[in-house]
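User: Please predict the structure of the protein below. I'd like the answer in structure-token form so I can feed it into my own downstream comparison script.

Assistant: Understood. Taking the following sequence of 514 residues as input:
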Amino acid sequence: MEAAMPGKTLMWIMISSLLITVHVHGVTSQMGHFSRSDYRDQMRRLQEFKASLTGRDSGSFVAPSSVSPAPSPNYSPPTPGRSSPRVYHVTTYGADPTGNRDSTEAVAQAFADAFRGPSEGFLMEGISNLGGAQINLEGGQYLISKPLRFPAAGVGNIMIHGGTLRASDDFPTDGYLIDLSASPSSPNQNEKTKESSSSMSAQLSSSSYNYEYITLKDLMLDANYRGGGISVINSLRTSIDNCYITHFNTDGILVQSGHETYIRNSFLGQHITAGGDHNERNFSGTAINLKGNDNAVTDVVIFSAAVGIMISGPANILSGVHCYNKATGFGGVGIYLRLPGLTQTRIVNSYMDYTGIVAEDPVQLDISNSFFLGDAYIVLKSIKGVANGVNIVNNMFSGYNKGIEIVQLDQSNGGFKEIEQVVVDRNIVRGMNIKGTIGRRTVQGNGSSWNIDFNPVLLFPNLIRHVQYSLSTGASNVFPNHALRNVSDNRVVIESDVAVPASVFVTVDQGVSS
């Protein structure tokens, strides 16, 4: 063993020398365009030499020609802009994360590459499944001068996340920073891109929706008072999660047609404020504009805008919404339901903070378990005089004793004529005047007639459809006959055949049809 040691030592010295020679040669050759064939040749000769030394030391020499060269590395240069599978990092396209330079083209190219990426079949018919691809903004702030769109419609299962987009001073005032609408291929794309997009567009032309399962997450969108934040047009199952959208002058989020856009855990405001802004009366724009059906807004704060949420499509739900966008006293509206005759909207567990709700000709509307602060109230606005299937119950109202009613009627276009199944009841009121469709009153007196006026508490004028009453007397020497004698102008008259001291308890209902 001891005799073999010098041989081994000599062998490793020679290998080290050869490695140094190869390394130096590689560095030198790299400067002189060192080729992959040179690299393979050097590695083969190194392996042969090592094998020959090992064979001599062990006493079993193997001829260099019988030694198979080691396989060369299977190297392929990375595709520009793709540092990991299906994750498109915008900085690798040249986007400037400091926001000093315009990054529109770079980010748009990431959109285009993601659009053309590998797919996993289809979602809805005609919607290509991109398999969960991601466009990663990498925590940067990017200056954008025109709306960011996919080259064409017809893809789904992709996420855009993780950074800030800010509109430039020349951003179109009618545009949106992220525009999920059908758009033709950009004329600036190269021929290969045009051909690919054209082919995919033809494949996906059978879809009745533009996109499906697009996720926008962890984004800040600054519209710079030049346009809007996000536009979702005729798309299916879109998710907008944990976004901060500000400085819009049109809509923070526009949803038009399509189905099931879910907006949650987000903050929207035209101006960045926390209430009490001296410029509040000048706030404009709409934070969320829902022009489609089957959408949901959950756990969202709207802190400045003329209208917090505008709804003109049916079957939407709002839950956990906090609106203090613009006080009613300054002309603001927290939630405006502009779909007369087909509301089908539920507003639950929400907080209307100095701003209220307006509903035009409400049909199937539920407002419940919500809090109205600062004299905020609900308005039912007559367009064609219809109120049907309205449920306003179990809310809390708090005001400043100014005589403001919790639910009001706007009949400037004509009175309500079709009133069915309207229930306004069981609301807790402090510092405001209670209004409802169910009235309960007690009167006491010694006589044969009791007149009870429900106008101070009933919502609709001259409408009582159902009356229940009880008459209780302490007189022991008489058993009076009594009856409901008149119901008109929201007044009830109870009469007895003899004068007695009595207490009369009456309940009336406006919303139950006979």
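That's the full token string. The first strand starts at residue 82 and ends at 84.
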